[in-house]
Amino acid sequence: MTPGAIHITTQPHYLAERSTPDEQNYVFAYTITIDNRGDMSVTLMSRRWLITDANGKIVEVEGSGVVGEQPRIAPGEQFTYTSGVSLATPVGVMEGSYTMVQENGDEFQAPIAAFRLALPNLIN
C-alpha cells in the first residue's frame, strides 16, 4: 500500500449535554472517516490512541477494531464511525494509529494525525 492510500479525517464535537464541568468532566464525540484510496481492500484490525488533557495527563487506549467492528474497506470506499472520550479539562488532544491488514496479508500502520478536543469558542 502506498503512503497516503488510507486517508483519515477527524471531526471532534463537544457534548455539552453529557458534560459536567463543575465535576471536571468534559465529554467529546469524534467522527472518523477512513477513505481507502489504494488499489487493495484493507481490514482495520486494531486501534491505538494517545489522549492528552490540558494537565499533561496521557491516557493510552488500545483495542481490537473500532466500535465493535473490524471493518473491511474496499478500494474507493469509506468507513465512518463516531465514538467518544471524556477529559478532566476543557481542552485536549488525541492522536493515534490503526493497524490495517491488506487483502494480501501485509500489515501496516495508518497514522491518525493529532486533533484538538476543545470547548467551542474557548480557543480562537
UniProtKB/TrEMBL annotation:
The gene coding this protein: apaG
Domain of life of the source: Bacteria
PROSITE patterns xref list: APAG
Lineage: Bacteria, Pseudomonadati, Pseudomonadota, Gammaproteobacteria, Aeromonadales
ApaG domain boundaries: 1-124
Pfam families: DUF525 (PF04379)
Protein name according to UniProt: Protein ApaG
PANTHER family cross-referenced by the UniProt entry: F-BOX ONLY PROTEIN 3 (PTHR14289), POLYMERASE DELTA-INTERACTING PROTEIN 2 (PTHR14289:SF16)
